[in-house]
Amino acid sequence: MPLTIAADQTPCGVLFDVFKRQGGISHKELASLILSERPLADGRSPVNRASDRTWLSHFVVRAPIGSLQPRYFKDHGLAAQRVLSRLRSRVGFTMTYEKVIDLICGEAGEAMDRALSLCHQDVALYRNALTRFQLGSGYTTGERAEALMVLFVAVGCSANVPYAVRYTIEYVERSFGGRAGTPESSSFAPEATVASGVACEPRPIGLMRIEDGYLVGVPHWIAADSEGVRIGALACGENDITDVEPDVSAEHVLVRWGGEDAGWTVRDLGSTNGTELLRASDGACVELAFDEDVELHAGDELRLGASTAFVVLGGVAGR
Fold first, then answer.
1. Which of 12, 53, 63, 92 is the most buried (most CB within 10 A)?
2. Which of 196-200, 212-216, 218-222 has the lowest mean pLDDT?
């Protein structure tokens, strides 16, 4: 039997409330970022119902514990990337990675502790995981913010701490190539900063397949000092990506570092069935024109043809 708790005290209710109050993301907008595109029994998907305030309130935001269905949500890692990108690009609510970390680990995020406690979850385990991802060695500030966002979204959507922690650990291992290390005594000291006027090494990016709304496989990492990577059914370069469906052209798109001014870009190479870029920053879907470079950012989604999609991951310099 579902556990009846006030909407603003359930993990999912807290998830929606925190992002609305602290990040300026409305319930409808957050729903568009975290709900699944997979059709339900009546043929409509949860994300298509995001504009139905009654349905969204009753079946998601205010749903009793135990009644929320996992199939309502897209992959937590993908959802977290989009929420993070939206927080960092909203006019008037732009957040640095440091502010995102403070949002989840600080006073505002403590509402999640109370909600988890009310539904008899292990709050100590959740807090231990927050601390590991916030202070564990070996991660950049951006990676810490991303890992914490994944955990916050996963626990808010599932109301299941052990599941959310396991999911986030696997996400970090797969995406960042590392484990959540034990914080050292000195980990409370601020991270070293780059001296003024010294150029930072460009961060690599990763491309990871999305199938049925879930991240699958491992990231394909692309270094800024490479000539770029082609994605296509018959792409033959050493680091090219061929993990695609049959309607993808032989050489469909080129992803490469375009220099400090352009950043990471994608170019359609004259594909037969087209390429779309779903921007995480504003949710806009852009159709790529032939032979024109378009900027790529972490959280963006590349759609090649009808059924091949990749999400863009941010990387670490030197990895």
1. 12
2. 196-200
DSSP three-state, residue 144? helix
Q: Coil, strand, or helix at residue 73? A: strand
pLDDT in tens, 262-294: 899 999 999 999 999 999 888 889 999 999 999
∠ at Cα 264 (215, 260), nearest 5°? 150
Quick one: 43 exposed, middle or buried, by C-beta within 10 A (0-12, 13-18, 19+)? Answer: exposed
Question: Dihedrals φ, ψ of 294, to 5°?
Answer: -125, 135
The pLDDT tens digits of the residues spanning 9-31 come to: 899 999 999 999 999 999 999 99
Would you say residue 206 has pLDDT above 50?
yes
Distances (CA, A) of 43 to 29, 57, 245: 22, 20, 24
Alpha-carbon distances, residue 291 vs 115, 191, 207, 224, 304 (angstroms): 50, 41, 20, 20, 15
Helix (H, G, I), strand (E, B) or coil at 153: helix
User: First vs last Cα of the chain: how many Å apart?
Assistant: 48
Q: Is it true that domain 205-314 has CATH number 2.60.200.20?
A: yes
Query: Which residue bears the tokens 């997979």?
Result: 38
Burial of 27 (0-12, 13-18, 19+ CB in 10 A): middle
Work out the average pLDDT over 253-270.
91
Q: What average pLDDT does this structure show over 218-238? A: 90
* Domain assignments of the chain as residue spans, ordered by start: 7-187, 205-314
- Give the DSSP letter string of 240-287: -B----TTS-TT-EEEEE--TTT-EEEEE-S-SS-EEEE-TTT--EEE
The confidence score (pLDDT) of residue 93 equals 67
The Cα 29–Cα 20 span in angstroms is 9
